[in-house]
Fold:
Amino acid sequence: MQDTVKEKAKGKASNLIAGATGDWEVIVGMEVHAQVASKAKLFSGASTAFGGEPNDHVSLVDAAMPGMLPVINAECIAQAVRTGLGLKAKINLDSVFDRKNYFYPDLPQGYQISQYKSPIVGEGEVEIDVDGESKTVGIERLHLEQDAGKSIHDQHPDYSYVDLNRSGVALMEIVSRPDLRSSKEAQAYVTKLRTILRYLGTCDGDMEKGNLRADVNVSVRRPGEPLGTRCEIKNVNSIRFIGQSVEAEARRQIGILEDGGKIDQETRLFDAAKGETRSMRSKEEAHDYRYFPDPDLLPLELEQSWVDGLAKDLPELPDEKRARFMKVYGLSAYDASVLVAERESADFFEAVAKGTDGKLAANWVINELFGRLNKEGNEIATSPISAAQLGGLVRLVVDGTISGKIAKDLFEILWTEGGDPAEIVEKRGMRQVTDTGAIEAAVDAIIAANPDKVEQVKAKPSMLGWFVGQVMKQSGGKANPQAVNDILKAKLGI
Structure:
């Protein structure tokens, strides 16, 4: 037990960053803002649809007109609870909405309705895998809050404009413990969290549209020392940039500390073009806003039976699906992880594997289909080959109708022309030759024509592959490879 504690204190060697004066450990905590998948905003009936003309999706509530009262959107509450359940977190039956007061031009109320001391979701956890090792990342809380509007600075040389379309859109702020120890772990965490949200259907995870973005808290320390002063990198909107921002900020802090300086707690922005972070504003306190309970909103009280009903209807989540794929289909941990990374991919695979060899189906989905989709910049949703077609191909291989080589030719036909796999095989004469008489005749002919090779293979059995290749070539790739091997071994006495 003592050794374990000591190892934790030291930090994992592979995660340490080498500085000029020794090794450093990076500490990362995440605040992920995920837009709730709902048609209406958190406290109004205005649309949450992306795009539209500026200020087109704005109600009187969102614009903070006098006398307008917020009304809680029940679906947003349900989505937050579903997310909490998916994170194996404590659901708080009693929670409170507060006013978080600050001035900003795109915040018409002068405050943001958020949750502070009493969030809707408490502690949970997320399992991540990095370099083949699993790690549990603690979730501190999930709270609901309104999004602000957007200031636009590039439409006039002298003025800034304000678009309130996003004002009042429901956000889930998911706060992790400072459990992450590298840029890889930070990326793996956000990737896994995004996958869970998409499985649940509570957030679409579209980072390009800003529907999921992260505030990344970074500090460094000597292994075993207390936590250092952290800096918050605001609104990082891609998995790649999350990794780059952690690396850049960690090295900036290490440089300051090794030069004898100290880290100022502040909010920073990541400049992707320069690969560095820059100061945005000072942040002297962890919470530098005034909060008080919103007088227009009663405390939110949930019934346990209602929460239980939501839990009952949850879909199978990535970790559960991964375990099932390994057990039912005999897949490796890696293959199962690749397939469950997106819900659409997992569903596609199961449709392919239905009633046939799961391992072979996974091989064709991952290596052939995913490989081709990536090469051509396509997605599973728009795949030229359907799950039914690929499943048909796999079944033809399993029952011996076609060989693996012929299957690749069939895959190409399905990709470019479409059609029914079984019909294509019949019409184009693609069945593999299983007639042992025909194969035997081909083997006899090749043995007779190559007496020198016969002597060589008897001395060196590994040369059998040359004979197999010749027979396959003569049969146009249609001969059953196993039958070819068996007949050759019998004829050559090896």
